[in-house]
Amino acid sequence: MGRLFSLTYPTAAVLLAIRHGHRYGFDVMDATGLPDGTVYPILRRLERRGVLAGAWEDEAVARAEQRPPRRYYRLTPVGESAMGEVTDRFPVLVRLFDPGAGLAR
Amino acid sequence: MNAPGLRTIAVASRLVPAARRDAWRREWEAEAAWAWRRLGRDGADSAAARIRLRARILTCVIDALVERKETMTMSGLIDDLRFAARGLARHPAFTLVTVVTLALGIGANTAVFTLVDDVLLRPLPFPGSDRLVSLEHLGRDGQDELPISAGLYLLYRDHAGSLEAVAMHTGTAANLVTDGQPERVLGQSVTPGFFRTLRVSAVLGRTFAEQEGAPGAEPVVVLGDGLWRASFGADPSIVGRTIQMSGVSRRVVGVMPPDFGFPDRTARFWVPLEVDETQAPLGAFFAGGIARMAPGATLESVRREAEDLTSRLPELFPGDGGAEFLRGVGLRPRIRSLKEQLVGDVGRTLWILLGTVGFVLLIACANVANLLLVRAEGRQRELALRVAVGAGRVQVLRSFMGESLVLAGVGGVLGTGVAASAVRLTSRMIPADLPRLAEVGMDARVWGFTAVVTLGCAVFFGFFPLLHYGADDLAGQLRDGSGRGSTSGPARHRLRNTLVVAQVALALVLLVGSGLMFRSFLAIRAVDPGFETENVLTARIIVPSGEIEGWQETMTLFRQLRERMEQQPGVLAAGLVGSVPLGRGGVSFGGLEVEDHPRGPNELPVFALQPQADAGYFTAMGIAVLEGRAFEPGDGADGVRAAVVSRSFAEHWWPDGSALGRRVRLGAPDEGWYTIVGVVADVHDRALEEPPREAVYFPTLLDAGGPFAPARAQDIVLRTAGDPMDLLPVLRRELRALNPRIPLANPRTMAEVRRGATARTSFTLAMLGAAAGIALLLGLVGIYGVVSYVVSQRTREIGVRMALGASSGSVRRMVVRQGFALAAAGVVGGVAVALVLSRVMGALLFGVGSTDPVTYVVVAGTLVGVATLASWLPARRAAAVDPSGALRAD
Q1: Which residues contact A14 (CB under 8 A, 6 or more apart)?
Q2: How far apart are CA B532 and CA A101, in angstroms?
Q3: If DSSP codes are grouped into helix, strand and coil, which group holds residue B353?
Q4: What is the ipTM of this complex?
Q5: pLDDT at residue B28, as a whole number
Q6: Which residues of B72-84 are buried (b: 16+ CB within 10 A; e: fewer)?
Q7: Are the beta carbons of B34 and A48 separated by less than 8 Å?
Q8: Chain B residues within 8 A of A40 when measuring between CB atoms
Q9: Looking at the partner chain, which of B33, B60, B63 has a beta carbon nearest the beta carbon of A68?
Q10: DSSP state of A24
Q11: B409, B523, B601, B821: which is deepest, by most CB within 10 A?
Q12: At B48, is the secondary structure helix, strand, or coil?
């Protein structure tokens, strides 16, 4: 079965970051430490492939902070199913985000 | 809120495709706003942090660029296509004309390619088929095409080291009585090695064992899948059972797979061909020869070995008269690949057809290209707008390509539909002698071909607008050409004129081709076949030896049938002949001796057709008796040795005197002489295109010791007062009354037989004619389109001219002259191309040369005339221009 996207190290990092609740573009940059210019292209590509889904933040929250609503990303079912491969191929990366996860998983 | 970096985002957002731009910008602005706010709130607001954040916001340019690139390559194409489709839907007339034109063009190409692929390109359906060769022979410097004889078969089988397996095959037929109804089934007699040579095996049981071809072996049969299903209900226990075929009990030893057939799938069973190795005649050519080359052998090495063997015949068969005879006729083997032999000269016809429909497609594409150019000019305002709002050159050009792709795509899809029905239709009208037709069908290769052709079309006519607007300064061009402006700007029109000239030239080539074909067709139709074709019915009657054994009883049956038929109302005459002329049946052709022209030791024997005919034949067939008499009922039967010769034979041997009373004889000296009692008109026996061969007719009813084996297969010929087919039931009834188990085969009128003989020519003519007709129509549409367009563009100029005193007549002439010039240029180019290309048609022509001046002049004149007419309509419109109106309009 052909995969929808190539699972590179940066891609895996972005997926893991979103899985762990870093859902906004800049948050993903902070959480992964990837070079700033690389994160958004990855997000866009994963969204186009249906691995991620983007949505706008609740307007009330944004208004309370007097800023425009941000756009957040979450894993689609496709993205969820890709996580297994992420943990298989990048076990060390997984432990960076989730120190409790054992290597044996 | 005016956080730093928002301007950067706003500028970068222009790079993002418009559809996504707004959302993109809002996302970046929100992130930036949030980040600045957090920077202040977290108290981490250092100069370094601010610089880092600015740098981060600056990366939105990367995001924007990547976004732009992705959309262009990914959904960009889809968008282009969708946009193009929407644009085309708004111009249904243009779209319909274009799509229909393309569908016809692509469909015709697909259909013809299907034939070419199946007949010419695909290998024969046997394992290792490229190692199969056919064994044929030529005599008298190629004048005689001879298949193979049993003696030569044994020679090759036993002595040719370069051949791994050799086999003979010949058509046969059997009467199979199922449920009391006699049925005539076609099959083949083959030497036992036939299946081994082709490397095919039975699905049930086995094929023949070597000893089953020896004289006296148990009669066996291998059934074809079709016969096994139709007559034996696909009963698997058939193997080992004995069935009755033509009165002979044959044991079924095997059943072949459904797709097996050679040379085509008409054979429904196979029986062993008996070869008596002790006395196999060298000179009796009666069967087709096939062989498989041994490993390492090449066509060339097989040829050399066969030539060597045949040249040593007298030495290999000392004392055999046949060997001397073959040396006398200068026998040479002709070894060809089996596929080449099967396909024969059909290849040329098919390639010409493919070229023809290819031309039609080119013309169609040129037309579409011209229409697209017109459209592109009409779209200049829209395009200028797109350029103004920032569309790049590439995007504009891609929108042209999108349109071409949509048009070609729809045309291609409809075209496959056209092709599918065309293949179904033509497979019915294709001449019966087109080989391998049963195998014709559309498959992945054909689809692939269609896809490539479709894409090629799109590129071809999408290319011209690109050429036109592909110059560097697109925006400038679009601005300049936004309306009337420089109307006759030479560069603008040169492209369109070139396309039209090319169209006319291609149309001329096709018209010349079909014109030549038409003249050949007329010439063939004008050929006097030497017999009457109207109101003549013929049918083949074969008496199996299992049904009636003795030759005398057989002859009695034929005679009685003829006598009964003669008495039927509506029958004017009835006769019998071995095989009717042009009927594709075999006629014996061989050596003779003429009494008053004894043959010298180094002379070739006299060759002539040797048909057998009976008393009623010449009258029934309407063959004129020029001198003496036709056969009479007594000839032959009671030892009256009478012969009738054709005019060319008589003139050949007795140019100054009468042939009557002279004597001829067949073969060996101990044969008696036959006295010539009559001279009849020449008959085209093999093809209307070939000159009649000299013929010596012998009476049908010969005594048993005669030179002919008793003729068990004869064609009955009935001349009728009314519709010949009305007598078919009568013929069946009378035959059944004589013997109910003898079936009637292949009933036809002689008019049908004659039509069959011209089928190849009329088929090619029909195809070429249709193609040329379409080409002419498209060419005219092209000229009409260009001239009208030019007129519409020059309305203002024409108005000025008329205001200055030009008469409407002079305006009309000016416009017509333009159409004429285009047509004339096309004709000149076309004639040059046609002179070269028509040479490949030479072999298909009859009675007309490939450079026939009449055809060229008529076609060129017609084309110029019609093209001038096509520019007449726009000319009239131009002459009706109202000067004041034309000048006032912007």
Answers
A1: A28, A32, A34, A39, A42, A43, A46
A2: 100
A3: helix
A4: 0.92
A5: 92
A6: beeebeebbbeeb
A7: no
A8: 59-60, 62-63, 66
A9: B33
A10: B
A11: B409
A12: helix
Q: Token pair for residue B512? A: 């010349």
State how far Cα B89 lies from the chain centre: 37
Residue length of chain B: 890
Which of residues 12 through 71 in chain A touch B, CB cutoff 8 A?
24-26, 29, 36-37, 40-41, 44-45, 48, 57, 62, 65-71
E strand segments, B543-588: 571-577
Helix (H) or strand (E) holding B132: strand B132-139
Residue B411 near residue B99 (C-beta atoms within 8 A): yes
User: How near does any CA of chain A get to the CA of B135, in Å?
Assistant: 53
DSSP string, B177-218: EETTEEEEEEEEEE-TTHHHHHT---SEE----GGGGSTTPP
CB-CB neighbors (< 8 A) of B33 in chain A = 67-68
Please give the Cα distance from B855 to B839 (Å, whole number).
14
pTM: 0.64
Percentage, residues of chain B above pLDDT 90: 17
Inter-axis angle of helices B346-378 and B380-388, nearest 10: 70
Q: Is-contact B149 B281, C-beta < 8 A? A: yes
Give which of B345, B351, B357, B427 is closest to B769, Cα–Cα. B357
Distance of CA B177 to the CA centre of its chain: 38
Chain B contact probe: residue of A14, A34, A40 with most B CBs at under 10 A = A40
> Of all helices (H) and strands (E), which one includes residue B699?
strand B696-699
- Write the CA distances from B479 to B326, B377, B475, integer angstroms: 84, 12, 6
Contact B74 A48 (CB under 8 A): yes
Give pLDDT tens digits for B441-489: 667 888 888 899 888 888 888 777 766 665 444 555 555 544 444 344 5
**Are B510 and B359 contacting, i.e. CB atoms less than 8 angstroms apart?**
yes
Query: Among B174, B222, B172, which residue's Cα sits nearest to residue B194?
Result: B222
| B31/A44 touch (CB, cutoff 8 Å), yes or no | no
Burial zone of B300 (CB within 10 Å; 0-12 exposed, 13-18 middle, 19+ buried): exposed
Helix crossing, B60-73 with B6-13: angle to 10°? 10
What tokens does B645 get? 């010769």
The Cα-based distances of B197 to B187, B295, B297 in angstroms read 18, 13, 15
Burial (CB count <10 Å: 0-12, 13-18, 19+), residue B150: buried
Over B471-518, what HEC string results? CCCHHHHHHHCCCCCCCCCHHHHHHHHHHHHHHHHHHHHHHHHHHHHH
The mean pLDDT of A47-62, rounded to a whole number, is 87
Residues of chain A by 3-state class (helix, strand, coil), percent to 5: 55, 10, 35
Neighboring chain B residues of A41 at a CB cutoff of 8 Å: 62-63, 66-67
Segment B41-83, tens digit of pLDDT? 776 678 888 888 889 999 988 888 888 776 665 556 676 777 7
Between A37, A44, A71, which is nearest B30 by CB?
A: A71
For residue B391, the model assigns a pLDDT of 60
- Whether residue A40 and residue B62 make contact (CB cut-off 8 A), yes or no, is yes
pLDDT digits (tens, 9 = 90+) for B351-376: 888 888 888 888 888 888 887 877 77
Give strand pairing partners of B144.
Answer: B139
Contact at 8 Å (CB) between B351 and B766? no
Tell me if B62 and A37 make a contact (CB, 8 A cut-off). yes
Number of helices (H) and strands (E) in chain B: give both, helices first.
30, 24
Query: Which H/E stretch holds residue B659?
Result: none
Cα–Cα–Cα angle for B52, B54, B58, rounded to 5 degrees: 115
CA atoms within 13 A on the CB side of B65: 7
End-to-end CA distance of chain B: give it in Å, rounded. 51
Q: Which residues of B383-411 are buried (b: 16+ CB within 10 A; e: fewer)?
A: bbebbeeebebeebbbbbbbbbbbbbbbb
